[in-house]
Amino acid sequence: MASSSLSSRSTLLLASRTAFRLVSSASCASASVGKRAFGSSLLHAASYSFSSFRSFSEMGVGGAVLQSDSEYPLGLTKPAHLSLPQISFSAKEIELREWKGDILAVGVYENDVSSGVLENGRLKELDSYVNGVLSEVTKEEDFSGKTGQAVFARLPGFGFKRLGLIGLGKKNEVFTKALKGFGEAIAAAAKTAQATHVGVILPAAQNFSTALKLDSVSTIAAGALLGIHEDNRFKSEAKLSLLKSLDFLGLGTGPEFEQRFTYVEQVCSGVFLTRHLVNAPANVLTPSALANEASSIASTYSDVLNAKILDVEQCKELKMGSYLAVAAASANPPKFIHLCYKPPTGDIKTKLAIVGKGLTFDSGGYNLKTGPGCSIELMKFDMGGSAAALGAAKAISQIKPLGVEVHFIVAACENMISGTGMRPGDVITASNGKTIEVNNTDAEGRLTLADALVYACKQGVDKIIDLATLTGACIIALGNEIAGIYTPNDDMAEEISKASEITGERFWRMPLEESYWEGMKSGIADMVNTGGRQGGSITAALFLKQFVDDNVKWLHIDMAGPVWSDKKRCATGFAVSTLVEW
C-alpha cells in the first residue's frame, strides 16, 4: 500500500491498496502449488426454514484451512475453533400477547414520536398492552427516535422480559443504513442481556408495501447477524453470544420471507469469511494459506466452482514479471489464485471478473514503512480486496445465479525485504509486455494487480471490478467509511451505485483525469509505478488502466478506508454484499 505522512488512521491506511474486480470470463481448472522466483523483466442459496436453522459450518463458511492441526506458524499461533453465529429467523403474524421471549425490540422513527407523545397507531396499541410503559419511558428518557438512541425497560409479568425502543432517525434518511443499524443494535442488546430469543416490531412498516417489508426484514436480519458475529479464534477466552432466534412480528409471513432469510445467511457467510481472512495475522495467513482457503471453497461448492492455483514457475511461463518482482523478497512463496464460478444450468450470457489485491503482508519493501502513522502493524489487511473476492465467491456459489460466469482472481504474495528483493530503480516487465520503472517499492499492490488484470482479460470477460486497499490518498479524500470508485464507464459506476443502495455500503465516484498520466511517465521505461503526492489515488487508478484491454469494461474500487474498523479494531467485511448484488 502506498504511504504518505499523516497522523490519523486516514494516513495510517495510506499504506493500503487493494484491487477488487468483478470481471466475467471463461474457464478454470484444478489446483497446484509450487516454488517461487524473481520478476520477469529478466524473462522478457440453500433453504432456511422458519422453525430451524443450519449452522454456517454446514454451509462451508471459512476457516478450515486456518485451523489446520498439522502446522504451527511463526509464534506457534494456532487459531482456536471457529465459532459462527447460528440464528433462526422467522416471520410471524400473531397477537403480541402470544409472543414470548427475552427482548421485544421496537424500531422507532423520529416521526413516530413528538415531544414524548406517541404518534404512531401501532405504538399506541403496544403502549396500551404494556400499561403505558412505552409512554412513560419515552418521556423519562427523552426518547425521540434519533439514530443511535436506545432505551430498555424491564417488564415483569409479560411474555417478554425487556422492551427496547431503538431510534431509526428520520424516515427520509438512508433506509438501509437505519435498518441495518437497528439490527446491529438488537445484536448489541442481546449480547448485554445474554438474550436467546428476540422479537422485532417495526410500527412504521404497517404502511409499507410487501416488497418494502421484505427489504426491511432482510436488512434488519443482516444487521443482527453481522452485529452478533465476533472473530474469537485468537483469544484464549472468548464469550459467545447466546442469541438463537429472531422473530419478526406483524410484517407478514410466507415463503418469500423464508427465501430472504436464506439469501441473508448466504451473503453473510461470505462476509464472515472475508472478516476472518483480513483479521488473520500474517504469521497465520500466508499466500499459501490464502490459496488453500480458496481451494477449500472450491471443494465445498464443486458443483459450480473450481480452482486453479499457479506457482512461481507457472507465473514465469505467463511472464508475470510485475507480480513476481513484488514477491521476490519473501520466504513465503507467492500463489496466484483463480476461482471460476459457472451456473449449474443454462447458457452463459455475461462473463465477469473480480480481481482482489492479495498482499498478505506489506512491509513497504526497501521503501520501508517507518514513522508515526505508517500503520505497518495493520498491513495484514492489505489483502482486503482478495478477501472480499473470496467472500463473494463463497456467497455466489451458494446463491447460484444463472446466466453469469464469474472469475475470482488474486495474485497473493508478501512485500518484504531481502537480498533477492525488488529495489527502487529496478525496471520490471508485466505480462502484457509493458515496462515499469519502480520508483517506490511501497507502491507494490498495483504491480501485482497489473498482471492479475492482464490475466483476467485473457479469460474473455466482459467486465472487471478490481478491489484494493490501494492508497492513503483515497482515505484522505473520502475518510474511513467510503470507498472510491474509478472507471471510464458510466454504466458500471451506476451499477455499483444501485447495488450499494441495497447493501448500505458507501462508494463515491472519483474523477479519472487522463491528463494526470503525464506524471507517471518514465525516462527509461513505459511508466513509473507511482506519481507525486497530489491526486495519488487517481494516478494509481490510471496505472491499473494500462493493463485492461480496451474492449473490457473496468471499474476500480479503492477500499483502503472501509476495510478496517478502528473502533472495533477488526475487519468489516466490506464490499462482499455489494459485489453479490452487482
Automatic annotation (TrEMBL):
GO terms for biological process: proteolysis. It comes from Taxus chinensis. One of its GO terms (molecular function) is metalloaminopeptidase activity. Keywords: Aminopeptidase, Hydrolase, Metal-binding, Protease. The keyword Metal-binding applies. Belongs to the peptidase M17 family. Residues 440-447 form the Cytosol aminopeptidase domain. The keyword Ion transport does not apply. It catalyses: Release of N-terminal proline from a peptide; Release of an N-terminal amino acid, Xaa-|-Yaa-, in which Xaa is preferably Leu, but may be other amino acids including Pro although not Arg or Lys, and Yaa may be Pro. Amino acid amides and methyl esters are also readily hydrolyzed, but rates on arylamides are exceedingly low. InterPro entries: Leucine_aapep/pepB, Macro_dom-like, Peptidase_M17_C, Peptidase_M17_leu_NH2_pept, Peptidase_M17_N. Homohexamer (dimer of homotrimers). Pfam families: Peptidase_M17, Peptidase_M17_N. One of its GO terms (cellular component) is cytoplasm. This is Cytosol aminopeptidase domain-containing protein.
